[in-house]
Amino acid sequence: MKSLSDCRLYTFVDTAYLHGRKPEVVAQQLCDGGSDIIQLRAKNSAENEVRRMAEAILPITRRAGVPLVINDFLSVAIEVGAEVCHLGQEDFFDGGYTHVSQLKDGKSNVEIGLSTHAPAQAERAIAAGPGYIAIGPIYATGTKPTAKPVTLDYVRWAAANVKIPWFAIGGINLTNLDQVLAAGAQRICVVSAILNAPDIAKACGEFKARIT
Ligand code: 3NM
């Protein structure tokens, strides 16, 4: 199983972009293309549906040695034995937590990833002990249409200041990828530019070849 620091290309099984495909089929294509880590993101699904999808995907990611991240649903991540749970600022800090150990309650070794949208949020998140942080959205994106872009300034700040694994996210595609890398990112999250591509595995391979 890859460690978080080994991961460079972070991709998604996002139910908003399945286009009729089964989640586990998409997961296999992401693995075949060289994704290092995969998140199940199901913003409008009930917990039991997320659990069902996670159980279908997990054997595929395990076989590939790719950590599976469950977005939002910590209970599902722990129950199915996913390697990571990703939480937003609201879920974590507005939920009253200050350290990831409070979430796990000694019962699980699931890693936690946290979203951040500004340097002050990154500093507070890092102090909470996550396995990684995400920084974004770098560019405007239809995947999160209401979020305000943080620009490459935040990437440059992260490159100079963040010592744990961090992933740039938001509106990244093959056209702007080089700008994000030049600003200092070594790890990239991509949702729509891969899931909307005609060949998911090929699209992953194109990103991967330029990141590593
Ligand atoms: N989180 P795409 S931006 C899921 O800034 C998500 O925390 C963001 O999708 C954040 O690659 C984002 O299609 C959307 O732009 C990423």
UniProtKB/TrEMBL annotation:
Its EC number is 2.5.1.3. Signal peptide: none annotated. It is an enzyme of class 2 (transferase). 4-amino-2-methyl-5-(diphosphooxymethyl)pyrimidine binds at residues 39-43, 71, 115, 144. Binds 1 Mg(2+) ion per subunit. Keywords: Magnesium, Metal-binding, Thiamine biosynthesis, Transferase. Residues 10-194 form the Thiamine phosphate synthase/TenI domain. Its cofactor is Mg(2+). It comes from the Bacteria. Belongs to the thiamine-phosphate synthase family. Condenses 4-methyl-5-(beta-hydroxyethyl)thiazole monophosphate (THZ-P) and 2-methyl-4-amino-5-hydroxymethyl pyrimidine pyrophosphate (HMP-PP) to form thiamine monophosphate (TMP). This is Thiamine-phosphate synthase. The lineage of its organism: Bacteria, Pseudomonadati, Verrucomicrobiota, Pedosphaerae, Pedosphaerales.
